[in-house]
Design goal:
It is built from no helices and eight strands. By secondary structure, it is mainly β.
Length: 125
């Protein structure tokens, strides 16, 4: 597996939702060896228990990974149980196009003092 690290900026836009869930539009700008934009949607649900919630999201990345151009989709699934967090972000199988065709992998993200960072492990089939 290969690995790239970098920073991204995220903008979340709340949307109307009739099911008492949080629904957001996602717009991201990535910099570093993964450079480009991503757009997607997120659904979240908080519970009555403080520190417990869940979210799912899908986003489509368009840009460059190292020296290759193309697109790919990411699937997010995050849970928090009484403050304990678990996050899984994977490349949607067979979603990559262009020079990124065959891409697979997973991503971790961190928010440190208001800045967002990615750690992307990937390879090509």
């Amino acid at each position: 597996m290969q690995r790239v690290l970098g920073e991204f900026i995220v903008e979340l836009t709340p949307q109307q939702d009739e099911l008492d869930m949080g629904r957001m539009l996602i717009n991201k700008s990535f910099s570093g060896e993964l450079a480009g934009t991503a757009n997607g949607q997120m659904l979240s649900k908080r519970t009555a228990v403080k520190g417990s919630a869940s979210y799912v999201a899908f986003e489509v990345f368009r840009g460059r990974l190292q020296d290759k151009q193309g697109t790919f989709s990411l699937q997010h699934m995050g849970t928090m149980s009484k403050g304990k967090q678990k996050l899984t972000i994977i490349v949607v199988p067979d979603s990559a196009t262009g020079e990124l065709a065959g891409l697979y992998g997973n991503m971790q993200i961190q928010n440190i003092k208001g800045k967002h960072y990615y750690d992307f492990e990937f390879d090509f089939a």
